[in-house]
Amino acid sequence: MKIKLSICFLCTLILGIVGCNLFNPTGSANIDSGDANALTYEGYQKFRANDYSEAAYYFSKAIEADSSHSEAWYGLAKAKLNLQEINSFELLKYVNTEGSNSMPISKMSDGTAAKYQYSIDTILDFMKVFITLDTTGQLDGVVSYKNISDSYMILQLFKTMLVLRKVMPDIPACASVNAVTGEAECNLGDILNGLHGNKSTETLETLHEFFSTCAKQPESMGAVAGQLLPGFGSLLSEEGKNVTMGASCDAMSSITQIGNTPAENEKKLSTVISFTGYSQSVDEDGDGCNDEEIIDGQDNDGDGEIDEDPRDQSDQFVYDEMTIAKNAIAHRQGTENLMIIRSVGPNNKYRNVDIDMDGRTANNEEWDFIYPEYRRRVENGDHRFRFAADLIFNPQGLPFETFQELKHSVAIDYEGKYSLQYRQETIGGCWVRYSESDFQRILEAQKVRYQE
After folding, report:
1. Could you tell me the pTM of the whole model?
2. Residues in CB range of 346: below 8 A, 6 or more apart
3. Which of 37, 98, 157, 379 is least surrounded, with the fewest CB atoms within 10 Å of its CB?
4. Residue 350: Cβ within 10 Å count
């Protein structure tokens, strides 16, 4: 089953399926007696007349009269959105790349991008207030978080694209322009991989907010769940699908939680990139192996770390869909419960990637587990691939935290500060299989990735 988080696809599809949300200006309010109701009614009248400043004034007065009046809060959110001039149809125009691999919104000018990011941040900040009040029982419940969750996620998706857009100027592929079209040559894969070594946590924060929203209101993502979660198609009931979607988003929310160190955040971004299928098949964790892990919440190479250098999630992964679905319904929401692998094999991209640097590509040892059956892997507490059976990590027995820090330092070393012999004797792993020419080639590749 192919898992591909396509931001462009998600935005286009969600924009097509949302019903009652902030982009729909024709909502109505049931008017009862009382000042708050009368003021809210007047606000909606102004809203229908496209007088959003006056509408915002009356909604604000209604909230002053009754701070629990959810229809006033909802109306104010809609008025604020329109005051920010966020045009969903214009955004969709930028997102629609007509099947191209181009980065969504790459054609947007810097001025337009800055305007939209300011506008989206402004409305998201207000919506967070509404959500907090609703989820803590401070509103009357007539209109709830559920009514704005679709729009909230749409805005977060666009914010994510705008944040990704910021790294484009620093990516060589994005600096080159097609002579015919006059457009940048880079695609979403270039952008995502450009995040490696980026010190900003803005992307992770934005992704975390999106997946947290989905976890709280999973039905909003039901239409695209099959793109994200193995096992989703095996469920028959809507309740089961919502629980499964919520569990998946909750797991991704956990993965994208800001870490305590740059190395930890780098690992989290690598995990997200692997889900999109854009990983570059390089050594990202400093052990000399290339994409030796899979996203299953387990240690696949025996170095003590989990999911630290993942390969692409692709259509060569076969999942235990029924077990995954059962785990989600039972609220077992860890990655190890939602990404249970039955088998895995190389797609075209990986057929020429020497994962373990043994001089052979796409051999069975790189793709077969030591214990092919998942049950046996659990029983033996061993989720390694066969290629890792003879690997020795940390031969000097350094404390685990020290070993992790050393690996990260090696991963970003493009000057050769850590010699090949040092890596072989201190880290071990796949470094023991490198020749000096292999080592120099890796240093050049690291220089391209990390030199500022």
Report:
1. 0.70
2. 316, 353, 362, 366, 367
3. 98
4. 23
